[in-house]
User: Which sequence fits this backbone?
């Protein structure tokens, strides 16, 4: 666009910012384009390696298996890239854990107790921020789910729905993430401490030819962030009943 | 902290049998709004507006106070102070508290004015009866010992913040729309707030758009519904962070996280920090309750866990106890923390004090 040089009066050219100012200013629209970034370990879960604006992603898992951690982690890279994010209906958000996952707390608002107004609050926020994480109380009504999905598409925001189990979101999502088998490392019977949770995360999509993929993740790793879990090739062997490090 | 004028209509604070108080108060807000823009209801019978603009326009805060008192057409007291909490007390006494004098003004008031009965009782037992005495305590120990809400009260007592959960009635805008005969759910044409501090000077369009959506949620659910998290020093999961209303002043870099607090449970941090801990029972192989001895050791290996009187779950791993001994004035508390993993794969952070176990946080 700025390739025309012949008749361009010099004054219309965007000038270089003075030295010293460039690293102090923020772009007015920090995030452009049709996608939001995700932390690199989560990229294999997404077609194109990033979170598509306007789509709905459901995150499900048995309580205690790390679905909350996974859902919060989806917002991390977007918030550090300058996008505003919101989490609706997480009643007791672990702020230290969120910071450990890489969320920029200056860009994240929490609405922990929306009560019956959860879908209206999420709808309001979808028109103001780039990514909204919502945890419906119990099973969402079809009308509420349709309304929010449509609002996310219309406002080009990403909607992340945290579910307690399968079937909690009547619409289904564009992408469905679910946490399967988990195993805590670092803790024994009376020694060590919780260091990391290895989890098998499965993704299936309505778009992109319904592709199904699975990957092993640390949810979280000892640093508090998510990480790719290496060293166990092939299908997962840990069943849901297996505990960590049975002595 | 914003300087506020508060209008206090003592006859309209509670709804009577005929429901006419809401209608009369809606008239008060409308009349005051004709005189000064940005008048907003705080709760039934109480309205507030920023002081600076009108004071400049009418030639001083005294002039604003007397003009408002004449205009509203009801028995009303008007006061001015920095921040909502002090301005409410100022209005009840019909005072103008000089700018920057909030802490001095609040000093002699009782801790009961915070409307936290449990906290007030505890503080009074410790010999802390006035807001001035509360303000003199170190902030770190308040949040560590009493949690985020008490820390918010402490900031108010110090004159550093004016907002407290419960000061504003989250349903008042809706109630007044009903009283005016409007559609209570229509909020689209509500005027934007004049200033929402707390976000990077508010320059960019994305910031402004986000701020408008937060204000809409606040109008729907109350100003304390939209919160931001801050990480600070602290020993327990609840004390390491606070959730403060969006728009609260930033305390700056003074509160540093990552300090090597003794007795701190190693990371990663739990994803759910329970505001209200759940009662738990911990048993050994023989079904006997397990405790932490005076020397900080478990009396037996842990085999089973029950939460909230629920079914026993087999325990597959545990770590700790991490003893926490605190001296808080003369009250000595001895607590210990334990991480417990049950056979379903769920990990919890437990805390024990005087033989009773609590679930403090979950690793979901």
Assistant:
């Amino acid at each position: 666009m700025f390739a025309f040089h012949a008749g361009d009066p010099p004054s219309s050219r965007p000038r270089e910012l003075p030295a010293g100012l460039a690293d102090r200013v923020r772009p007015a629209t920090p995030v452009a384009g049709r996608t939001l970034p995700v932390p690199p370990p989560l990229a294999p879960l997404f077609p194109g390696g990033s979170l598509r604006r306007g789509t709905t992603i459901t995150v499900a898992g048995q309580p205690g298996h790390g679905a909350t951690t996974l859902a919060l982690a989806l917002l991390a890279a977007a918030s550090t890239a300058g996008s505003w994010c919101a989490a609706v209906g997480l009643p007791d958000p672990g702020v230290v854990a969120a910071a450990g996952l890489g969320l920029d707390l200056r860009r994240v608002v929490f609405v922990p107790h929306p009560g019956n107004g959860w879908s209206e609050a999420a709808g309001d926020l979808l028109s103001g921020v780039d990514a909204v994480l919502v945890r419906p109380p119990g099973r969402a009504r079809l009308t509420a789910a349709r309304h929010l999905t449509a609002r996310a598409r219309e406002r080009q925001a990403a909607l992340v729905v945290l579910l307690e189990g399968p079937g909690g979101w009547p619409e289904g999502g564009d992408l469905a993430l679910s946490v399967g088998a988990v195993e805590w490392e670092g803790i024994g019977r009376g020694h060590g401490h919780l260091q990391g949770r290895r989890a098998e995360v499965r993704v299936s999509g309505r778009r992109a030819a319904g592709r199904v993929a699975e990957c092993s993740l640390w949810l979280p790793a000892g640093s508090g962030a998510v990480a790719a879990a290496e060293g166990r090739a092939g299908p997962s062997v840990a069943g849901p009943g297996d505990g960590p490090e049975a002595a | 902290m914003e300087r506020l004028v508060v209008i206090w209509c003592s006859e309209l604070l509670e709804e009577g049998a005929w429901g006419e108080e809401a209608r009369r108060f809606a008239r008060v807000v409308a009349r005051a709004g004709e005189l000064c823009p940005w008048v907003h209801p705080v709760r039934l019978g109480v309205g507030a507006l920023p002081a600076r603009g009108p004071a400049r326009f009418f030639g001083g805060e005294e002039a604003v106070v007397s003009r408002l008192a004449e205009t509203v057409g009801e028995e009303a007291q008007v006061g001015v102070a920095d921040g909502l909490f002090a301005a409410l007390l100022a209005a009840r006494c019909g005072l103008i508290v000089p700018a920057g004098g909030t802490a001095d003004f609040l000093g002699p008031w009782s801790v009961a004015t915070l409307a936290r009965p449990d906290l007030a009782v505890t503080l009074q037992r410790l010999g802390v009866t006035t807001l001035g005495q509360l303000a003199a305590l170190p902030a770190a120990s308040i949040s560590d010992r009493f949690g985020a809400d008490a820390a918010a009260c402490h900031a108010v007592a110090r004159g550093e913040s004016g907002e407290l959960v419960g000061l504003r009635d989250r349903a008042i805008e809706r109630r007044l729309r009903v009283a005016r005969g409007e559609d209570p759910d229509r909020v689209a044409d509500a005027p934007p707030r004049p200033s929402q501090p707390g976000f990077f000077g508010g320059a960019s369009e994305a910031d402004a758009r986000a701020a408008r959506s937060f204000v809409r949620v606040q109008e729907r659910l109350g100003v304390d519904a939209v919160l931001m998290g801050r990480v600070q020093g602290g020993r327990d999961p609840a004390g390491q962070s606070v959730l403060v209303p969006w728009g609260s002043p930033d305390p700056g870099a003074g509160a540093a996280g990552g300090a090597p607090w003794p007795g701190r449970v190693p990371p990663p941090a739990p994803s759910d920090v329970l505001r209200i801990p759940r009662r738990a029972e911990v048993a050994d192989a023989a079904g006997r309750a397990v405790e932490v001895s005076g020397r900080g050791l478990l009396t037996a290996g842990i085999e089973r866990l029950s939460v909230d009187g629920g079914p026993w779950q087999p325990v597959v791993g545990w770590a700790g106890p991490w003893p926490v001994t605190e001296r808080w004035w003369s009250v000595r508390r001895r607590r210990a923390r334990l991480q417990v993993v049950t056979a379903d794969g769920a990990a919890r952070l437990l805390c024990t004090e005087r033989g009773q176990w609590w679930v403090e946080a979950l690793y979901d």
Q: What stands out?
A: The mean pLDDT of chain B is 83. The radius of gyration of chain B is 24 Å.
